[in-house]
Design brief:
Keywords: Hydrolase, Protease, Serine protease. Helix 7 runs parallel beside helix 8 and helix 8 packs parallel to helix 9. This protein has 17 helices and 21 strands. By secondary structure, it is α+β, with helices and mostly antiparallel strands. It folds into four domains: 33 residues, no CATH class; 89 residues, Roll (Pdz3 Domain); 222 residues, 2-enoyl-CoA Hydratase, Chain A, domain 1; 112 residues, no CATH class. The strands form five sheets. Strands 3, 4, 5, 6, 7 and 8 form a six-stranded antiparallel β-sheet that branches. A six-stranded mixed β-sheet has the order 10-11-12-15-16-21, with helices on both faces. The chain is 39% helix and 21% strand.
Amino acid sequence: MIMSNRKLNVFLPLLFAIVLALGMYLGHKMPGANTGAQTLLFTRPSRAPLQEVMDLLKIKYVDTLKVDDLQEEAIQGLLSHLDPHSIYIPPSNLQTVNEDLEGHFSGIGVEFNIIADTVNVVSVVSGGPSETAGVQTGDKIIKVNDSLVAGNNISGDKIRKLLRGPKNSKVTVTMLRQQKMTPIQIIRGDIPLYSIDASYMVSPEIGYIKINKFAGTTYQEFMDAMRKLTKAGMTKLVIDLRQNPGGYLDAATRIADELLDDNKLIVYTKGKSYPRSDYRCEKPGLFEKGGLTILTDEGSASASEILAGAVQEWDRGTIIGRRTFGKGLVQEQFDLSNGGALRLTVARYYLNSGRSIQKSYAEGREAYDDDIMNRFNHGEFVNSDSIHQLDTIQFKTASGRVVYGGGGITPDIFMPFDTSRFSNVLTSMYSRSTFSNFTYQYFSSHKDEFKRYKDATDFSNQFQVSNELYNAYKAFAVKDSIRGVESIKPHDENEIKTRLKALLARQMWSYAGFYESLNKDDEMMKKAIQVLNKK
């Protein structure tokens, strides 16, 4: 043992010398050894040029810059070279965007309308904080806490920010009611943002459901509506997806599962970094049998197209209306350190036959945004022969019918757009909110006259716009600087009376009353009923 230690003491200095010489030799041969640069075995990754530029601007630029604004512009510039649905959401907008899809927000629970610089309470959410505190339809909001809002050039966004706040927080709203100022303390609470506007029985057999978006609560809302309609005797169904911009993929596939049987493929997604993922029917649905029609138009997009497309692919029902928007991309939202978010396209979705309905964005975002107007100018809204099928590849449904991809869902039955609805006088009335302003004021001063209608169905069947009411509206329109009131054509008169009736129904029963009344004279709805009655 002593002998071994002696040998180690002799050879240890020699070993150190060899290692030192080897290290010097390798160091001489490494990159940068002869350039004066320091070479490290582990180097930190260099900053990207974009970050280098931002750092130099912050430190060296001659003037003080709003760096956050510059960063947002740089992000927007990057995204402008991608697809039109990859977007940056600033921190100031993120809460509102998320609330819309989550299906609720924290506030006081009123719907308001700004008329002549005054905030008017149009409706009060049933069971909500405002109703509990005693707020009534017709009240005028004068102050929110210490902030004067009446006659102060208040905007919708400003009043919403004042009224919304954390759950269980208190806000004092000063109301003007019958010429008396009344301060009302309201405890904010969760306010639902419903994605199903209306569900009612059109006839003893036919039910109707209007879906305005696909949010986190949509599936449960749909199931509640279906159970109610089924209990009322529904054996045939109209689903209205017009002007539905889409939303959560999961909400659309779960509803499709209620309409399709067996293990049918509803849709699948795949992308460069996302392997194929199939969405199939997983359980017995609530309405796998029975007549089904789906109403679509150029505003039906994304998740709406998944639901309509799945029904069309499996020949489960009839699609009625006009060609849909054409969005076949899937976005995922990523939170950013500044409080904003990036909604990035990560995959495409494909229907059962393999068709994608995403329209081309090769010509840039401006051309993409102009597509709907180009369709209108091309005549597609009024003539099915003008529909330009962008995808030359034909696909087939389960029964062998030919369908097309590459630009939306083409309906099985085309319904033209009524261009006569937008005469000069009607366009002015819509743009100036003449209809809604008049109906609010008229209803507020004639509430007792509407108490005799027990529900929206009774109102829809019984109420007629009288000559007295119609003339009162025309007088209001003249005061509102609408030109051409004295020479209104019969078609415009019918449109005015239909709109007035629907908006009065909305005053009493919100959107459920609005759509039940409006659909009475809707041509697309009439066609859906005709198709279902034939089946």
